[in-house]
Amino acid sequence: MFFSCKPAEMANLMEDEVFMAFTTYAAIVILKMMLMAPLTAYYRITRGSYANEEDVSRKSAEEKKKLLKAHPDVERARRCHQNDLENVIPFMLIGLLYALTGPELSAALLHFRLFAGCRIFHTISYITVLPQPSRGLSWILGMLVTFSMAYRVLSTVLLL
């Protein structure tokens, strides 16, 4: 049942509340992750901080020297986006497998909501520079949620 879904079973999967909850929260964290690129671009433009020579190719040599520099706001947004990639992708893969194990809806919603909330709070704490341990705690809780789902997957389908 775990990986061999027939078309009729796929239709049932699309009606499964846990699977629908997963797709909802997966879409939320993916959209949040995708919005980090335009935010980084916004910071690059408004802070005059570019990383690549081609970004300032039409500028004079003096202007290029001023613009080809790092800025803390740009670096925070860029690192936040990198952190999203390192956390959202594992959540997506583990979360999908978790949803397929047939967990209780309430447990699944708790996992999905906690993870999405942690990622949103992590971004807010990163971008607005909230003091630690706010960002660290949100990262740890998000990782624990993913590990909890992974434990459920392994304990449900472990075939060694």
Automatic annotation (TrEMBL):
Subcellular location: Endoplasmic reticulum membrane; Mitochondrion outer membrane
Major localization class: endoplasmic reticulum
Assembly information from the UniProt record: Homotrimer; The trimer binds only one molecule of glutathione.
Enzyme nomenclature, EC number: 2.5.1.18
Keywords from the UniProt entry: Acetylation, Endoplasmic reticulum, Membrane, Mitochondrion, Mitochondrion outer membrane, Transferase, Transmembrane, Transmembrane helix
Pfam families xrefs: MAPEG (PF01124)
GO molecular function: glutathione transferase activity
InterPro entries membership: MAPEG-like_dom_sf, Membr-assoc_MAPEG, MGST1-like
Membrane topology: Multi-pass membrane protein
PANTHER family: MICROSOMAL GLUTATHIONE S-TRANSFERASE 1
Gene3D superfamilies per record: Membrane associated eicosanoid/glutathione metabolism-like domain
Catalysed transformations (reactions): RX + glutathione = an S-substituted glutathione + a halide anion + H(+)
Task performed by this protein: Conjugation of reduced glutathione to a wide number of exogenous and endogenous hydrophobic electrophiles.
Spans traversing the lipid bilayer: 20-43, 85-101, 136-154
GO cellular component, one term: endoplasmic reticulum membrane
Enzyme class, spelled out: transferase
Organism, as annotated: Dicentrarchus labrax (European seabass)
Record SUPFAM superfamilies: MAPEG domain-like (SSF161084)
Signal sequence extent: none
Family named by the database record: Belongs to the MAPEG family.
Record's protein name: Microsomal glutathione S-transferase 1
